[in-house]
Amino acid sequence: MNQTGETAAVLFCFPHLQGSCPRTLRLYVTRVAMYAFMLTTILMTVCGNLLVIISVSHFKQLHSPTNFIILSLAVVDCCLGCFVMPFSMVRSIEGCWYLGKHFCKVHSSLDMMFCTTSILHLCLVSIDRYWAICHPLQYRTAVPISKVIMCIGIIWLFAFVFGFGVVFSEVNKVGLEALILMSSCVGSCALFFNKEWGIIASLVAFFIPGVVMTCLYIKIFHVARKHVRVISNRVATVSFHELKNQASEQRERKAAKTLAIVMGVFLLCWLPFFITTVIDPFINFMTPVGIFDALVWFGYFNSTFNPIIYAFFYPHFQKAFKVILTNFFCNVNTV
After folding, report:
1. In a domain, 2, yes or no
2. CA-CA 20 to 30 A from 184: which of 14, 222, 298, 329?
């Protein structure tokens, strides 16, 4: 490709190929800072969620229906940090995709799959907390661990079929063929959604589960406040047995609040991205690539925040994390 005049200053992803995409021009210092920040985020995501995985797997006192859901969610977030975020990092900073069209489809499918799996896991957690706090007497029979594991399996299967089915069938591109052909170049990896599938994908992966979670948590907090009023009225005449029951109820309410914070962080992280996904096809895809990448990474940060939230707000995880980290550093020092 011969380049003269102004085009000579343009860097291309594949200079030896005709029709190569231009690379994103950034200052060296900016690129280094972006790589350092994103690599730190990826390491925090992987290591933090590995701590959750090891904690729930190793400590039997954490073997509960809720924590098995959190374990599966941590696996999702860890997989996102290992198999999606590193490649997205290079694409976001360099503005190029170096791994070919086929792996681009696999990457986009995994991205959709893990995003959908995360929100559905959080929806499942909200259902679990609803039964535990609003129907405590029926909880053990209504939410056995076997049923939770079955629901987790269904979520993983549905998200896999949804993510890979949409991307590889290319139903999301119907009606956009001319636009994609005009804007395509060698070294690009962009996931386009037409108007119909922008709405459908956002509803399935985010808005419908988000509404379900919001309604359930409103109900949970209403019941929790009612419990607090009942306990305050009985505080002068409680027996030892009642004190134990009250302590158990307080733990349940605190767990519900913690998980509500997890859900709230998820909504704050992903809401801008999904709103943009719905609106963008109706404004002829006018959203700048840089802004869209920033929204994607803002969504990825949710996977980094989850284990941090558990460490600060969930006492059982605090103790497990301390034991694991203490043993790890003691073994390193002895070596």
Report:
1. no
2. 298
